[in-house]
Amino acid sequence: MSSAMYERMRANPKFQELVARRGRFAWTLAFIVLTMFYGFVMVVAFNPASLGQPLSEGSMLTVGVVVELFMFIFFWALTAVYVRRANTEFDSLTQEIVKEAWKENK
Amino acid sequence: MRRLTQLITALGLVAVAAMAYAGGPLEGVTEKQATNWHAIIMFCIFVTMTMGITYWAASRTKSTADFYTAGGGITGFQNGLAIAGDYMSAATLLGLTAMVYGQGYDGYIYMLAFFAGWPVILFLMAERLRNLGKFTFSDITAYRLDQGKVRTMAAISSLTVVCFYLIAQMVGAGQLIKLLFGLDYNVAIFAVGILMMVYVTFGGMVATTWVQIIKACMLLAGGTLVMFLAFGQFGFSFQTLVEKATAVHKLGPKLMFPGSLLADPVTAISLGLGLMFGTAGLPHILMRFFTVTDAKEARKSVLYASGFVAYFFNVIFIMGLCGILIVGQNPEFFEGGVVGAKMIGGGNMVAMHLAKAVGGNMLLGFLAAVAFATILAVVSGLALAGASAISHDIYARVIMKGQASEATEIRVSKIATICLGAVAIVLGILFEKQNIAFMVGLAFGVAAAANFPVLILSMYWKGLTTRGALFGGYGGLVSAVLFVVFSKSVWVDVLHNAAPLFPYTQPALFAMPIAFLLAYIFSKTDTSVRAGKEIEAFEDQYVRAQTGYGAESASKH
Predict the structure, then answer these.
(1) If you average pLDDT over residues B515-522, what whole number do you get?
(2) From CA B96, how far away is CA B52, in angstroms rounded?
(3) C-alpha distance from residue B168 to each of B15, B100, B352, B509 (Å)
(4) Interface list for A 27-66 with B (CB within 8 A)
(5) Yes or no: is domain B35-441 CATH 2.40.40.20?
(6) Where exactly are the structural domains of chain B?
(7) Which residues span the domain enclosing A58?
(8) Which of A19, B203, B327, B433 is the least crowded, having the fewest Cβ atoms under 10 Å away?
(9) How far lies B490's CA from each of A105, B38, B436, in Å?
C-alpha cells in the first residue's frame, strides 16, 4: 500500500487511459440520464397536455405512460451497460495496471 | 456540476407532493383498530425467522469487519436486495399507492423522480465509495485529512441524521402499528426498539442485512401478488383498467394527465436537492457500499437495487389504478359506509384495503406484517450506522487513536446500539403526539448539507483541506438545523410563534451552497504546511479511488 506503488501506477500510461476512458463513459451516461429526465420534467411543467394524448385513436395508453415506462427500462439498461463494461474492460485494465506496478516493484 | 443542478431543479419540481404523501403516517395521531390476529401471527413468523438468522449471524460475527460490514462478504445480488429494501420503506408502499389512487399519472412521475437518482449515483459515486471506504463514510472524508477533527465532525453529523430519522421512524411505526395491528402505541414502540437491539447487538451487519433482504423479498412478493389479483379482475388489460378508472375518478380523463406539479418552486427545488443528495449522504445507505467484496460487486448491487426499485414502482402504479375501482367504489372502506367519505384509517390505507378486497384477511395480514418488518429493518440499519459512528469513529479512532483492540471496539458498539435503542424508545414515546413530519426533511437536509458536500469534495476536489472540511461540514450542519428551527414547521407549529423567521420549510437549497462555499473558501485560504501535505496526498488517494489498489478486502471465513 506504499506511496511508491501509487507513484508507479500513476506513471503508467494505461492509468491515464483508464481514467480518461471510464470518466468519459460515466459522464456521458450521466449526461444522457439527466438530459432525458430533465427534458421530460420540462414537458411536464410547460406542456402537460401533450403527455395526456392517447398513443392512437381510442387507445387508453397515453404518450406519457409510454415515455415514462421507456425511461424506467432505458435508465436501467444504461446501468446494466455501465456495469458490464466497468466489470470487464475497465476492471481488466485496472488489474493490468496493478500487476505491472508489482512487477516493477520486484 | 451544472448538469446536476439542472437535475435537482427537475427533481425539486416533482418531489414536493411525494413527500407530502409519503409523510402521511407521520402526521397526527391515528385511531386504534381492532386487534388483527392474521397480521400478528404473520409478523411473529417473520420475527422467528429473523431471530434464527440472528442466532446464526452471531456465530459469524467475530471481528469488527464482521460487525460493521458483514466481513465485506455480501454478494452484489444480496446487497442489491438490501439497498432496495432500505429504499422501499413503508412510506413508499403506502404513500405512493395512495398518490396514484388520488392523482393518477402524477404519482407515476414522482416515482420516476425517485428512481432517476440511482443511475447517477452508480456512474459517479459507487466505485469511489467502495475503493476508499472501510466501515463508515468518515473513512473517506478523513482519508488524507486530520483524523481526529474530521471524524468527530462526521460522527456528529451522522448521529444528528440518525437521531432525527429514528424519531420519525419510531413515531411513524407506533402510529402505523396501532392502526394495522390494533396494538397499543407504547407496546409497538417497545417491540420495535427491543427487536432492533437484539438484531444489531447479536447479529451486527450480517443480521441487519438479512432482515433487510427477507423484508425486501416479502415486499416484492406481497406487492406483486396484490397487483396480480387486482389486475386480473380487469383481464390484465391496461386499456380496460384505465377506461373504467377514468370513468369513475373525480379527475375524469385528467387522471392520465400531469397535474398540479408547480406549487411553490423554491420549496420544491429545495426538497428535491435534499432528497437526492440526502440519499447520497445518509450514513446507513452509504454503509451498504462497504459490505460487498469489491467495486465490481458494488456496481452490481446498484444494478440489482435499481432493477427491483423500478419494477416495484411499476407494480405500485398498477396497484394504485386498481385501487381507484376496487377500493374507491366499495362503501366498506369508507367511514359511515359512504363512497367518497373519509377513508377508514386515512388516505394512506389504499394499499391495505386493496389487499383485503382482493385477498381477504390473510393477504391484509401479510401486507401489514410486511409494513411492520419494513420499519424494523430500516430502524436496525439506522442504529447500526449510528453505533458505528460512536464506536469506530469516536471511540476507536478519536479517543483511542487507533489503539483500541477489536474486542473492546465491538463491545463499545454494542453498548452504543443499546443506548441508541433506549434513546429511540424514549424519544418515540415523548414525540407521540407531536407533528414530526419535519424530522424526515431535517434528516435529509442535514445529510445533504453536512455529509454530502464534504464527502463529494473529498473524493473529487484535490484542494480540500482539514480546515475547509471542518468549516463546510459544521457550517452545513448548523445552517441546516437553524433553517429548520426558524421555519414554519418548528418555529410556528412546535414553538407556537406567530410567524416563521425563515419562509421556507426545506433547508437544502440554502444550506448546501453555504457548506460548499465555506469548504471552498477555507480550503483556498489555508496556507498551512499541513494543508500542503493534504493536497499532495490527494494524488495517492486518487489512484486508489480509481484502481481499488489498497482497498479493504473481504475477510476470510
Answers:
(1) 95
(2) 33
(3) 19, 24, 21, 22
(4) 27, 29-31, 33-35, 37-38, 40-42, 44-45, 48-49, 51-52, 59-62, 64-65
(5) no
(6) 35-441
(7) 3-104
(8) B433
(9) 60, 39, 9
pLDDT in tens, B465-477: 999 999 999 999 9
Q: Give the DSSP per-residue string, B235-277.
A: TT-HHHHHHHHHHHSTTGGGGGS--S--S-HHHHHHHHHHHHH
In chain A, which residues have pLDDT < 70?
1-2, 105-106
Mutant choice from B543, B544, B552, B553 vs A, greatest count of A C-beta within 10 A: B543
| Per-residue pLDDT reduced to its tens digit, B171-195 | 888 878 887 788 888 888 998 899 9
Give CA angle at B506 (B504, B508), nearest 5°.
120
What ipTM score was computed for the predicted complex, to two decimals?
Answer: 0.92
Q: Is A82's CB within 8 Å of B123's CB?
A: yes
- Tell me the C-alpha distance between B386 and B141, whole Å: 17
Number of domains in chain A: 1
B13, B314, B546: residue with CB nearest A19: B546
Q: How does pLDDT run across B390-403, given as a tens digit for each residue?
A: 988 888 888 888 88
Going by pLDDT thresholds of 50, 70 and 90, the confidence category of residue B554 is: low
Q: Nearest-CA residue of chain B relative to A39? A: B10
Q: Is the separation of the CB atoms in B105 and B255 below 8 Å?
A: yes
Closest Cβ–Cβ partner in B11, B115, B549 for A98: B549
